[in-house]
């Protein structure tokens, strides 16, 4: 049922009954009746109870009915009070109010109720399901209330009370879900989600019910972040396309030449136009099957928005993305709107965002992107049912979702190999070839002292009980490259350079052991060091053995090198402390709207969409 039904119901079907049904007697204890008529009440309560209402509404009868419903949880009703999410809080709330209503105040109330119902119905604009708030149940109770109120019977008060409680619970849940998110990611993704969450415990669970005007309050808490609002616009657009035909495009991958006529391009143009990547309004329909500059540019924009190489060609991967079902677009938008509700990214702050499904790092300043860099993240974790829970966790290389502040950089870093990597890689390679350690520039330590080992020495031990520590020295081939960026976290995760360059030309780039590898680490260093240190990007390049063309810069660096390294240096390794720590978010978005207004989509590399989809009931 929709709200239009309710308005029509009120207009056309509501008729007052000539016969007034008697009220059913309620077994309310004497002390409770005393409480209900207590003189300890506000002027508004007194006014509400003494007002001369139309249709014979009795405030005391309503309060008695509300009391019975909350304290005795009548199982003959359409729902149990104990089933409401905020059951205990609602009971406490209404007890404090002497069972005075906060939403429905008489038989003649309609507009305020319908306005709040409309808010719940429009939760769809946030990608949420009205049924999560018992919308249909509220419609039934409200309809029954409108139909029975003319009889002034106990039934009318029952439906009125039910509507009051359902709406009170719904608007409170709505406010929570819009402000904090409908699910708690720290619980849903336990062990991998460590981004900061707004503390919902600091506010009243039933905060909307304490407002002078509930409707105005619900309007005031709507997300104002531009990223979120753009996603709402995208949701409306894609839902409007549900009436459009959306069959799979049966197009063979072809290598077209500019200016070539290819009839299937008409279907491609139609799809690109619906998706917002081609303005076909200014193009002649006879030209739409020509592989011209407009078609190439439009395909390239679509490719980039879907994580593909933006070359404008019509290959297998592009056709597959063009055939993405419409429901997948809508689902991804809804899932990522929920993610946007979890963490507040203000439009005015300065921070770095690593988006794992995109495999990019973005430097954001005043809502504008200042820098973007390709990254590699942790390998996909595939659950193995043949392994124990502990073994599965040990095999998990997925990069966790984190927040931290980059506080220093290390140039020419050494690498102390984590135990998990020693067991998986170093042990086996060294047992097979003892020269592996020298080839890769490793030192071996036991009890803090450097030792020399043979393959036989290593083979005496299980890879799970090695007494050795392996440290890769700074220099060419070091797994961390020439620079790493450090921030506090409990997982030894950091951003770093890498000598392995091939993965940056591929997609997806989930190839690391958990840390974030940077394609252009010196670009990030230059951005962070700007107005933040005595160091600059050129000095960092020179310190790490890279060339700088400006001879005056080289001369200045040589003159100041000792002073610059005074903060922290150990042989080749140099530490750069930052004056101001730099906020860093490692997050997970599989859909977002870019600055040009195009919806971007990425694959669910860690299968988090599927988990969230089930929890949201999408």
Detailed description of the structure:
The chain is of the alpha+beta class. The protein folds into four domains: 3-220, no CATH class; 247-324, Muramoyl-pentapeptide Carboxypeptidase, domain 1, CATH 1.10.101; 345-413 and 483-587, L,D-transpeptidase catalytic domain-like (Beta Barrel); 415-473, no CATH class. The protein is built from 23 helices and 17 strands. The protein has helices spanning 3-13, 30-36, 43-50, 59-72, 87-96, 111-121, 135-148, 154-180, 185-188, 214-220, 226-240, 265-275, 293-305, 316-322, 326-342, 389-395, 419-432, 435-439, 455-459, 521-529, 537-543, 551-564, 608-616; strands spanning 193-194, 350-355, 360-365, 368-378, 401-411, 415-416, 442-446, 449-451, 469-472, 483-487, 495-496, 510-512, 516-518, 569-570, 573-587, 591-593, 599-601. The strands form three sheets. Strands 2-3-4-13-11-10-5-15 form an eight-stranded mixed barrel. The protein has a four-stranded antiparallel beta sheet with strand order 6-9-7-8. A two-stranded antiparallel ribbon has the order 16-17. A hairpin with a 7-residue loop joins β10 (483-487) and β11 (495-496). It is globular, with a radius of gyration of 32 Å. Residues 1-41 have low confidence and may be disordered.
């Amino acid at each position: 049922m929709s709200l239009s039904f309710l308005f029509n119901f009120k207009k056309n079907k509501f008729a007052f009954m000539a016969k007034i049904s008697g009220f059913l007697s309620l077994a309310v204890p004497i002390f409770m009746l005393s409480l209900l008529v207590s003189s300890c009440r506000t002027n508004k309560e007194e006014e509400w109870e003494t007002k001369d209402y139309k249709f014979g509404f009795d405030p005391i009868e309503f309060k008695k009915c509300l009391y019975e419903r909350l304290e005795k949880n009548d199982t003959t009703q359409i729902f149990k009070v104990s089933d409401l999410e905020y059951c205990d809080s609602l009971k406490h709330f209404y007890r404090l109010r002497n069972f005075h209503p906060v939403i429905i105040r008489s038989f003649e109330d309609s507009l305020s109720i319908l306005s709040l119902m409309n808010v719940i119905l429009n939760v769809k604009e946030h990608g949420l399901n009205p049924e999560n708030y018992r919308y249909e149940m509220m419609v039934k109770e409200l309809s029954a209330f409108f139909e029975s109120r003319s009889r002034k019977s106990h039934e009318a008060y029952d439906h009125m009370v039910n509507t009051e409680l359902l709406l009170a619970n719904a608007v409170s849940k709505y406010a929570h879900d819009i402000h904090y998110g409908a699910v708690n990611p720290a619980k849903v993704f336990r062990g991998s989600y460590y981004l900061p969450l707004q503390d919902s415990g600091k506010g009243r669970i039933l905060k909307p019910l304490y407002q002078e005007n509930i409707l105005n309050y619900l309007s005031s808490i709507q997300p104002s972040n531009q990223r979120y609002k753009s996603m709402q616009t995208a949701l409306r657009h894609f839902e409007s396309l549900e009436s459009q035909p959306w069959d799979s495009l049966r197009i063979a991958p072809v290598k077209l030449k500019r200016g070539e006529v290819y009839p299937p391009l008409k279907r491609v143009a139609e799809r690109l136009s619906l998706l917002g990547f081609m303005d076909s309004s200014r193009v002649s329909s006879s030209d739409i099957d020509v592989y011209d500059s407009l078609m190439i540019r439009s395909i390239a924009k679509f490719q980039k928005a879907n994580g593909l190489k933006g070359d404008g060609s019509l290959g297998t991967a592009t056709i597959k993305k063009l055939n993405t079902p419409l429901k997948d677009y809508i689902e991804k938008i809804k899932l990522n709107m929920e993610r946007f509700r979890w963490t507040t990214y203000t439009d005015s702050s300065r921070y770095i965002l690593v988006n794992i499904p995109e495999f990019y790092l973005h430097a954001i300043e005043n809502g504008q992107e200042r820098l973007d860099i390709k990254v590699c993240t942790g390998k996909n974790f595939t659950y193995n049912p043949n392994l124990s829970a502990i073994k599965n966790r040990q095999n998990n290389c997925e990069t966790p979702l984190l927040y931290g502040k980059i506080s220093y950089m290390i140039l020419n870093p050494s690498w102390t190999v984590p135990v998990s990597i020693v067991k998986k890689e170093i042990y086996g390679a060294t047992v097979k070839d003892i020269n592996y350690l020298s080839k890769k520039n490793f030192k071996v330590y036991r009890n803090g002292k450097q030792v020399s080992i043979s393959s036989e020495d290593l083979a005496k031990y299980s890879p799970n009980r090695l007494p050795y520590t392996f440290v890769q020295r700074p220099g060419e081939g070091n797994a961390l490259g020439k620079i790493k960026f450090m921030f506090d976290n409990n997982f030894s995760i950091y951003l770093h350079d890498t000598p392995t360059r091939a993965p940056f030309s591929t997609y997806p780039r989930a190839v690391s052991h958990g840390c974030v590898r940077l394609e252009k680490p010196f670009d990030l260093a230059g951005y962070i060091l700007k107005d933040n240190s005595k160091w600059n990007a050129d000095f960092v390049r020179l310190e790490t053995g890279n060339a700088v063309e400006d001879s005056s810069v080289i001369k200045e660096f040589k003159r100041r090198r000792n002073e610059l390294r005074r903060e922290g240096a150990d042989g080749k390794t140099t530490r750069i402390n930052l004056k101001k720590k730099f906020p860093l978010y490692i997050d997970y978005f599989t859909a977002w709207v870019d600055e040009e207004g195009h919806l971007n989509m990425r694959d669910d590399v860690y299968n988090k969409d599927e988990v969230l989809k089930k929890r949201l009931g999408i």
